[in-house]
Amino acid sequence: MRLRHLRIAVQLLCLGVFLLLFLLTEYRGADVLVYPVSLLFRIDPLAALADALAPGAFGWALLWPALLLLLLTLVLGRFFCGWICPLGTTLDGLGKLVGRGLKTPAPGWRRCKYYLLILLVVAGLLGLQLIGLFDPLAIFLRTLTLSLYPAWNLTANHAFEWFYHRQLPVLSPLADAVYPFFDSYLLAFHPPAFTLAVFTLAVFFAIVALEKVERRFWCKNLCPLGALLGLCARHALLRREPEAPCADCSACLRECRGGAVAGRGHRGGECLLCMDCEGFCPQGRVRRRFGSPKIGQGVDLSRRGVLTSLTAGLVLAPVAGGTPAVWQRHSYLLRPPGAVEESEFQRRCIRCGECMKVCIGGALHPALLDAGPLGLWTPVLVPRIGYCEYNCTLCGQVCPTGAIRRLSLEEKHKTVIGIAYFDQNRCIPFARGEECLVCEEHCPTGEKAIVFDVRPVRVGEEERLIKLPRVVRNRCIGCGICETRCPVAGVSPVRVTNEGESRRPHDPWA
């Protein structure tokens, strides 16, 4: 059982490293993140596939580790799924709490992940990128970012506040003593709160609940990353011996968590290298040895299933591409600074949530229908909730696929996200004849993008000279702080639209 114990130790170590990198994806007083916080996606072959299918050059500098992982899979098999994948480790742990299913689904379910991979690749080739919706690493990090991390911050802050106000002997001084450590390393710079938090958690719970049907149901039957790695691992050099279960025992056939041990042989593409079969074998016959590539049992996809997947991808992509451009329907769709042109952005973004996690002003949130039905979980800037910090370039530093370009501070100051405008029916100086200077005071640009025109305004029977705000278009970059700080309740009377954004150089209104 030593290899099995080693595998569990490595799983926990990798999960700890990924959680540490997640915590380091945070503003801690420095404008540059020195740690490879996006490492999880640099080793993600699905992220590399999404980048390869997007227009433009492939991001070799960021994504070469993913190609190295594929090469190692050709030699070792699906070791990533059994030893490294944080979602797989989480399912192994939570599955024990949920309980395992009593019935094993039909073997045909294992084909679903291959059909899904075919659909995603075909759709991606035709311009529709949906890989990020099903990438297990994106699902894992999305759940942490949008749901669990905000809940952790809220719970921890309330706990420290409770101890502070109660002034309990021993416990309150202890809480005061440990709070600086939590504040510096374990809590967010800005208390996070995201839209779609409940929906994102519900999706994660659904994946965990599938453990009740079968152990690692997601990994065996639905995971497109598992399908991609399985195709590479079919003829791996590290092979299991004996290939078929022994006639006098067959314990490994019953216990295999990946369903890789079959009556006729060993399915290398389904094996997670969990090493359980070596421990379960009462005679100690099962071994792993390097050898020349050997043809094992195939994927056994049905012709009808492959044709259905191909057809779905071929139809879905042009239908989605035939809808009107999003900004023609939604003028308040704002993307992070440095985002590439919208069609390319949706093809590069894998919905990982890294940019939302690192946003200082809490401005970036996951889209539901804001970016169209296929823009689910892509980042949008919501100025009424938070603003884009003028001197921050962190979102471009953490994006693993180049959907958000890394900008220098000088480039960031010139990058236009959108342009603000005033609704004079609700703006305090226009509608009430009362002075309000909040938007101009917070405007961060070198020369203020919001200025005042002093004009007479009639209020009842009286005429007053009032400072009326006005946006200087060629100075406004659309950071949204004016909309965030506006004291009017509800929808802000100053709003940022995506008019004139830098990523649309041919915009006729720019």
Outline the structure in words:
There is one protein chain. By secondary structure, the protein is mainly alpha-helical. Among the domains are: 2-144 and 199-290, no CATH class; 416-510, Alpha-Beta Plaits. The chain contains 24 helices and eight strands. It has helices spanning 2-24, 39-42, 45-53, 60-76, 79-84, 86-98, 112-125, 131-134, 136-166, 171-186, 197-209, 217-222, 224-233, 251-255, 276-280, 303-321, 326-329, 342-348, 354-358, 394-398, 409-414, 428-432, 438-442, 481-485, and strands spanning 238-241, 287-290, 364-366, 379-381, 419-422, 450-459, 462-471, 494-497. The strands form four sheets. Strands 1-2 form a two-stranded antiparallel sheet. Strands 3-4 form a two-stranded antiparallel ribbon. The protein is elongated and about 100 Å long. It starts with a helix and ends in a 13-residue tail after the last strand. The mean pLDDT is 88.
**Low-confidence regions:** none
The number of helical runs is 24
Q: How would a textbook summarize the main sheet? A: 2 strands, antiparallel
Distance between the termini: 66 Å
Radius of gyration: 27 Å
> In which order are the strands of the major sheet placed?
1-2
SS strand fraction = 5-15%
* Topology, number of strands: 8
Fraction of residues in helix: 40-55%
On the 0 to 100 scale, the average pLDDT is: 88
| Global structural class | mainly alpha
What general form does the structure show? elongated
Topology (SSEs and partners):
Elements: H1 2-24, H2 39-42, H3 45-53, H4 60-76, H5 79-84, H6 86-98, H7 112-125, H8 131-134, H9 136-166, H10 171-186, H11 197-209, H12 217-222, H13 224-233, E1 238-241, H14 251-255, H15 276-280, E2 287-290, H16 303-321, H17 326-329, H18 342-348, H19 354-358, E3 364-366, E4 379-381, H20 394-398, H21 409-414, E5 419-422, H22 428-432, H23 438-442, E6 450-459, E7 462-471, H24 481-485, E8 494-497
Antiparallel strand pairs: 1-2, 3-4, 5-8, 6-7
Helix pairs in contact: 3-4, 7-13, 7-16, 9-10, 9-11
